[in-house]
Amino acid sequence: MGQSVATWRRWAWLTGLLVIPLIILAVLVYLTGDISWIQRASSALILMIIVVGLHTFSGNSGVISFASVAFAMIAAYTSALLTIPVEQKPSLFPDLPFFLEWLASFSVPVPLGILMAVAFTGLIAFIVGIPLVRLSGLAAGIGTLAFLVVVTVIVTKWKAVTRGESTMVGVPKETTLWWAVVGIAIAIAIAALYQMTRRGRRLIASREDDKAAMSIGISIPIERLWGWTLGCAIAGLGGALYGHYIATFSATTFGFALTFFTVAMLVIGGLGSLTGAVVGVLVVQILAEFLRTIETQGLGPIPMLEFPGITEMVLALIMLLVLILRPAGITGGREITTWFRRRKSAPAARGAST
Amino acid sequence: MYLQYIIDSIGTGSLYALMTLGLALVFSVMGLMNFAYGQLVMIGGFAMILLRSQPWWVLILGTVVAVVIVSLLMERLAFRPVRTATAMTMLITSFALAQLLQQAARVAFGANPRPLEQFSELSVQYTVGDLYISRMTLITVTTTLVSVVVLALLLKRTNIGVQLRASTEDVEMSKLVGIRSNRVIASAFVISGVLAAIVAMLFFSTRTNVSWSSGESIVLIAFVGAVIGGLGSMVGAALGGFLMGFTYTMLNALLPVELRVFADAILYTLVIVVLLIRPAGIIAAKGVRV
User: Fold this and answer.
1) Which helix H or strand E contains A139, and what residues bound it?
2) How far away is chain A from the Cα of B54, in angstroms, using its nearest Cα?
3) Closest CA to A241 of A303, A179, A187
4) Which residues in chain A have Cβ-Cβ distances shorter than 8 Å to B275?
5) Is residue B257 part of a domain?
């Protein structure tokens, strides 16, 4: 790949510093043996994959995208269609259109299904990315939001293939905590590598100053298309894993609510850094679980609060406070490695690791 | 037959145009896409439920006052602190605020939609030849036209309107000539609130219930309409909203039945196409960076 030894060392540091604490956390949760905690940790890690995918595009390019959940949805449905056991397919999908009839004749093991789903998602992302990455600012926000609506409508209404508003059932439930750990490790490793290689640096350069980037010959649409395709494929990995984790899902599982949460987690963590994506998910998820516990069973001296929606309400309030008090997010858009470097009192090279 | 579709589409289009205006006004003054705008309409709907048994003028006045108060609080508590932050942070702030208001409504009014007793006097139908025009369509179109004219007069002829437009052109410069931006922005939120209340009354009069999630679809329409119409331009925003509503109703009427369920997908694909051809909107205001 032609990367220098120093780049690889930086990559190893960033990946290690982010992944190892997550592995330790997962092991600790596993050791408690509490099923509900293991479930919460698994879904938080899977969600983190989607947010890392979002960061790979939005964080590095500075262009907002509301479409990552749409790609997670595409991947979840693709992997489901590929892995549902052959004998169940005729009853679940009796009216497949002629050009998709071949789907009913086979099924693949789950890991292969996930890989194929990620590849397919990447392909779709590449195709729709060609026009979409030309948009910036609010137009990009609207364009990607419109894409999310289009995907949602197709998934909800194309009954023959997606079972429409009825939930997808019969999906093999194979994602475990360890699958989620492997998934997030892969996602972080790839995202970290991308933003340290030449392609990623060019995209970051276009975020920092588009005119300067263009003046040194960077083609912004091409760099954005790379980041977009990679980011959407990573979101697809999260989506496919999620599908095999909850096993029954519908279009509402991947709706505006999830989109809001993923974007909010990224911004709260700190837009522009991979560390921000990881920290944002951890903080928001821990907070959400804490609140949900209070809502459903009370916690210590705090009585149970039986109002549907109180968790989401308090969560939104806290997000609002974070945004008002710390608009650049918890990490301020810096990577975890910069803190370590600063401690060694070396010149703090901010640009070198963001 | 087609004329009938066009009449219905004009009705929806006018309502959508009104929806986008309130959003576009705030955007043009402070560069904020206020995602919580739809929740103002939702709050207006709940105000209508609470005031349903009152005389009509109390209902109208009460709804407007309630929505304007929430709109002002929004500006003061949430948006003023992030005014200097990036556009992305402001957008997410409004997202969080929308979520907060929505969930608060869910806690306060319950998860199930609340029934809203119909206004029977509004469902009268007039026949002209073989065309049907409901009184509601007439009211919607008239209200939209009146609101647009009043808004235009307000912006052109009044002191605060001139200050608003000056801030839209150049915030820094307008501050230098002594315009108090806090007051100007607050007044934009007041006008935006009044528009949201009007939208709420027109929108929910044709519905049978109000739910905590009612605001979501409205803000999506307004948001998209404002951007494709042309940000920073009031005429553009109204046009964008109108086109959204008009196209949507026409698609629903003209598409073959089996494709009708995909009307939304087609509409939003068209939106992407419009954005690609004119990223700054159909009527782009000068100097607006999108």
Assistant:
1) helix A137-157
2) 29
3) A179
4) 135, 139, 142-143, 146
5) no
**Interface touch B99/A132, C-beta < 8 Å:** no
Nearest partner of B52 among B122, B139, B130, B117, judged by Cα: B117
Partner-chain contact A146 B264, CB within 8 Å: no
In a domain, A26, yes or no: yes
Sort out which chain A residues have CB atoms less than 8 A from B216's CB and list them: 256
Do the Cβ atoms of B135 and B118 come closer than 8 Å? no
Domain-embedded: residue B274: no
- A266 in any annotated domain: no
State whether A142 and B265 contact (CB < 8 Å): no
Determine the structural domain holding residue A147 and report its residue range.
Answer: 5-257
Residue A102, number of CB atoms within 10 A of its CB:
9
Nearest CA in chain A to B289: A137
Which chain B positions have a beta carbon within 8 Å of A310's beta carbon?
A: 103, 107
Interface confidence, given as ipTM, is 0.80
CA distance B121 to chain A (A): 35
Q: Given pLDDT bands bounded at 50, 70 and 90, which one contains residue B163?
A: confident
A72 φ, ψ to 5°? -60, -40
Residue B155 belongs to domain spanning: 2-213
Per-residue pLDDT tens for A292-319? 888 777 766 666 666 677 778 888 888 8
- Residues of chain B contacting residue A307, judged by C-beta atoms under 8 Å apart: 107
Run of H or E residues at B115:
strand B114-115
B269 vs A146: CB contact, 8 Å cut-off? yes
Return d(Cα A13, Cα A7) in angstroms, integer: 10
Q: Is the pLDDT of residue A349 over 60?
A: no
CB atoms A260 and B85 under 8 Å: no
In chain B, which residues have their Cβ closer than 8 Å to the Cβ of A315?
99
Identify the H or E element spanning B133: strand B131-134
How many other CB atoms sit within 10 Å of the CB of residue B179? 18
Q: Which of residues 166-225 of B touch A (CB under 8 A)?
A: 212, 216, 220, 223-224
Please tell me whether residue A253 adopts helix, strand or coil conformation: helix
Does the distance separating the beta carbons of A150 and B33 come in below 8 Å? no
Q: Assess if residue B244 is contained within a domain.
A: no
What is the mean pLDDT of the segment spanning A149-172? 86
Q: In 10 A of CB B119, how many CB atoms?
A: 17
Residues of B in contact with A57 (CB under 8 A): none
The tens digit of pLDDT for each residue in B124-143 reads 888 877 888 888 888 999 99
Element (H, E) at B126: strand B125-128
Task: Tell whether A82 is covered by a domain.
Answer: yes
Reduce the DSSP state of residue B134 to 3 states and report it: strand
The two three-digit tokens of residue A117, written as one number: 């789903």
Helix axes B234-254, B214-229, angle to 10 degrees: 120
- Does some domain include residue A354? no
Name the token pair of A235.
């979101």
Q: What is the DSSP letter of A86?
A: G
Give me the number of domains chain B comprises. 1
- pLDDT tens per residue, range B166-220: 877 777 788 888 888 888 889 999 999 999 999 999 999 888 889 888 888 888 8
* Six token digits for residue A105: 């004749």
Q: How far is B147 from chain A (nearest CA, A)?
A: 26
Residue A111 pLDDT grade (very low, low, confident, very high; cuts 50, 70, 90): very high
Q: For residue B96, which residues of chain A lie inside 8 Å, CB to CB? A: 264, 316, 319-320, 323
In chain A, what percentage of residues exceed pLDDT 70?
92
Residue B180 in domain: yes
